[in-house]
Amino acid sequence: MKLKEFLLKCENIYRFIQNIFRQALSPPFEWREILKQCYAVGNRSFFLVSFTAFLAGVVFTRQSRPSLSSFGAESWLPSLVSQAVIRSLGPLITGLICAGKLGSNIGAELASMKVTEQIDAMEVSGTRPFSYLVVSRVVATTLMMPILVVFADIVALLGSYLTVHSINNTGFELYFNDVSANITYLDIFSSIIKATFFGFAVGLISCYVGYNSQDGTTGVGKAANTAVVISMSFIFIIDLLSLQFTNLFR
Amino acid sequence: MSNATSNIDNSHDRTDIESTEIVAHVVNLKKSFGDIQVLKGISLTLHKGENLAILGRSGSGKSVTIKCMVGLMSADEGEIEVLGYNIRSLSSEKLNELRQQVGFSFQSSALYDSMTVQENLEFPLKRNLKLFDKKKLNYLVKTALQDVGLDGAATKKPAELSGGMKKRIGIARTLILKPKIMLYDEPTAGLDPITSAEINELILNVRKKYNTSSIIITHDISCARQTADKVIALIDGHSKVEATFDELKITKDPELAPFFKY
User: Is residue A207 domain-resident?
Assistant: First the structure.
């Protein structure tokens, strides 16, 4: 029975993903709603992502500096920080913040709409709620995550620069020359692709659990919680897979 | 489905709105949830211009019946034909086409709580009719709100409305697409007797103005009495009897009589 339930759930998820692609790629397109959701996604996460990325840049720099100093390799600090931030830290922090912030928000919002029959009301008036509610959100998180990651990378590097500058009085140009000299196109490209997958995973998981929520009001809390937990787990899984994949080209 | 039981006096007029045109027809509808069979063979016929009340105890499958009629739930067995569409074999495009002709008023009103009343009413117009002209939208919304007696509520959010107002707005939102059939799920549930009477009056006005045929799901006897031309009682998953309210009122059937006792 448990195996049967699991297989049925897998089939449901497969159909859900299939529906997303089918409705995202066929007209009528939800341009207005996608734009609205993009704004909401960016607006909701912007401050938190900036704040966390800045702190991560500062903390990582302060923690790495003593180790590098003990080898007399303090000049490698910009190189180390930039590679860490762009390859892993930036996407990971942004992904986790978005999984927490957007996952809970989308999961709870859709679940409460389900509980209060708002989704049924849309369905029954022929207004294609799947496309309006799910496709627009998944597209928005998929599009916005790379933008947030690039922004988080810049803010984290800025945090790192301010830390180095406060200690060594290093110039802005010198620091960022070092940074750019050690960053490859592959680093940037893989980071953006990874972020796109993070965005898709967060949107997909949150929408799936919210849209299929059950158990009344208890289900709303459960959906929000499940959306966050599974999204976060998938961010680590995608991170690991993308690392393995990117290493093939290094 | 059996006709009125022998205990019912059939001499009463069935309805003053007699029409032979059938707009919805359900035959032997069955639906189970897990091991529990909720609908064990429901049959009903809705004629054009008719108000049909489905009366039954809580959990008897009244709401499930109308949800199956618009494809919100899939039936296990039976035939459902609405406005000439066979629901069980419809593609999603055709189902959407049908749904735009059937209004569904939810028990919980199901207003979109992130939108104002105006946006709630504009939503189906924008989505279904691709109507974005502000003047036209305003006119249609205003008319629909006037029809339900709430023309000053356009800027309010659902959270600011009372239960009765929510029901009216829910009805207005379905009326804005000019449906041919209205399905009311417990329209008076949770309302005081005065507001209930107003909602009943509204249901009758909607039929008159929009020329709709309606199915009214209720366990409220006064709602059935005021609004229905014909009543179907759901007992133990079966459509037990189809008769006018006055015929049912005097029934001595042990399963039906308790409905009219209180």
Answer: yes
> In this structure, what DSSP letter does residue B223 have?
H
State the ipTM, two decimals.
0.85
- Best of A109, A125, A130 to substitute, by most chain B Cβ atoms within 10 angstroms, is A125
Interface probe for A, chosen from B92, B96, B183 (most Cβ of A below 10 Å), is: B96
User: To which H or E segment does residue A76 belong?
Assistant: none
Instruction: Flag if A121 and B112 touch (Cβ within 8 Å).
Output: yes
Of B110, B124, B173, the CB nearest to A117: B110
Residues from chain A contacting residue B170 (CB–CB below 8 Å): 121
Domain ranges, residue A240: 32-247
Enter the pTM of the model: 0.85
Return the structure tokens found at B195.
């507001």
The shares of helix, strand and coil residues in chain A, as percent rounded to the nearest 5, are 90, 0, 10
Q: Which of A118, A123, A128 sits opposite B72 (nearest CB)?
A: A123
Compute the distance between CA of residue A248 and CA of residue A236 in angstroms, rounded to an integer. Answer: 19
Domains identified in chain A, total number: 1
Which domains, from first to last, does chain B contain? 22-260 (3.40.50.300)
Burial class (CB in 10 A: 0-12, 13-18, 19+), B230: buried
Evaluate whether residue A5 is within a structural domain: no
In this structure, are residues B253 and B76 in contact, taking their beta carbons and an 8 Å threshold? no
The Cα A90–Cα A94 span in angstroms is 6
Which one, of B168, B153, B150, B182, lies nearest residue B52 by Cα?
Answer: B182
Rounded CA-CA distance A44/A40 in Å is 6
Residue A19 located in a structural domain: no
At B104, the pLDDT band (50, 70, 90 cuts) reads very high
Is the N-terminal amide bond of B179 cis, ω within 30° of 0? no
Residue A9 lies in a domain: no
Distance CA A82, CA A164 (A): 13
Question: Which contacts qualify for B228-231: CB closer than 8 Å, 24 or more apart?
Answer: B228/B51, B228/B52, B228/B53, B229/B14, B229/B15, B229/B16, B229/B17, B229/B50, B229/B51, B229/B52, B230/B14, B230/B15, B230/B50, B230/B51, B230/B52, B230/B53, B231/B52, B231/B53, B231/B54, B231/B55
Strand B22-33 with B181-185, pairing: unpaired
Interchain proximity A123–B97, CB inside 8 Å: no
Q: Which of B100, B107, B108 sits opposite A126 (nearest CB)?
A: B100
* pLDDT tens, residue by residue, A12-64: 999 999 999 999 998 888 899 999 999 999 988 899 999 999 999 999 999 99
Task: Pinpoint the alpha helices (H) of A71-117.
Answer: 77-84, 90-115
Rounded CA gap, A20 and A12, in Å?
12
